[in-house]
């Protein structure tokens, strides 16, 4: 593909305190597209990120995206390809590139004026809202729509996350206290 044809979106992710409250807003202002269980297996690549997304419906996609993490606006260029044999591809990529991390989540998908709104429950991380605005005409148009959605859902800046779920899980794994194994010792018996 020519560089100008690469799909680009503006993303925002925020931790949510009340999933039920966010769901009520989404059901009132958005159209709902579905509920999915997803397993995202990330592979070691640089630059960018490569993940195999497996759905509970047996559908799968290979997704490559490039995005600067941890800084202001999160613009992402991405490619998606449907996968017919996900288990074979997962094994092959694991051998060739190495598996980085696996993210498991339940996702409710909504649409608002063409933007994708995900209400995610991520295993070991909690509940989040994720917004993806596809850039159609200009970056300013995408920014305007994102700002509107932020207002509608009353997303506060202190809840915004500038990391991927994969990064959050890796960070959590590194900071989690290690459990020490208790060694059972035989009682001392006088000789």
Approximate strand percentage: 35-45%
Q: Looking across the biggest beta sheet, what order are the strands in?
A: 1-5-4-3-2-6-7-8
The level of helicity is 10-25%
For the largest beta-sheet, the strand count, sense and barrel status come to:
8 strands, antiparallel, barrel
Order of helices and strands: EHEEEEHEEEHEH
Mean pLDDT: 88
Structural class: alpha+beta
Radius of gyration: 20 Å
Question: How many extended strands?
Answer: 9
Poorly predicted tracts of residues = 180-189
What is the straight-line distance between the termini? Answer: 80 Å
User: Helix count, per DSSP?
Assistant: 4
Shape: globular
Structure description:
This protein is of the alpha+beta class and 191 residues long. It has helices at 19-29, 86-96, 139-152, 165-175; strands spanning 8-15, 31-43, 49-55, 60-67, 74-82, 99-112, 115-122, 126-134, 160-161. The N and C termini lie far apart (80 Å). Residues 180-189 have low confidence and may be disordered.
Give the gist of this structure.
This protein is of the alpha+beta class and 191 residues long. The protein has four helices and nine strands, in the order βαββββαβββαβα. It has an eight-stranded antiparallel beta barrel, surrounded by four helices.
Features:
alpha+beta; 191 residues; single chain; eight-stranded antiparallel barrel; globular; 9 strands; disordered C terminus
Helices, strands, pairings?
Blueprint: E1 8-15, H1 19-29, E2 31-43, E3 49-55, E4 60-67, E5 74-82, H2 86-96, E6 99-112, E7 115-122, E8 126-134, H3 139-152, E9 160-161, H4 165-175
Antiparallel strand pairs: 1-5, 1-8, 1-9, 2-3, 2-6, 3-4, 4-5, 6-7, 7-8
């Amino acid at each position: 593909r020519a560089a100008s044809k690469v799909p680009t979106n503006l993303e925002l992710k925020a931790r949510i305190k009340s999933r039920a409250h966010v769901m009520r807003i989404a059901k009132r202002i958005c159209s709902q597209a579905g509920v999915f269980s997803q397993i995202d297996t990330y592979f070691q690549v640089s630059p960018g990120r490569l993940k195999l997304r497996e759905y509970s419906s047996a559908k799968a996609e290979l997704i490559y995206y490039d995005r600067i993490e941890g800084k202001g606006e999160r613009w992402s260029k991405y490619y998606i390809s449907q996968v017919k044999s996900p288990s074979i591809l997962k094994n092959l990529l694991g051998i060739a590139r190495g598996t980085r991390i696996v993210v498991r989540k339940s996702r409710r998908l909504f649409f608002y004026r063409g933007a994708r709104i995900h209400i995610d429950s991520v295993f070991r991380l909690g509940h989040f809202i994720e917004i993806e605005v596809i850039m159609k005409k200009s970056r300013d148009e995408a920014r305007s729509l994102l700002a509107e959605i932020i207002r509608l859902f009353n997303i506060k800046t202190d809840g915004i996350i500038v990391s991927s779920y994969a990064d959050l899980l890796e960070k959590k794994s590194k900071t989690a206290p290690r459990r020490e194994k208790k060694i059972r010792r035989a009682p001392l018996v006088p000789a």
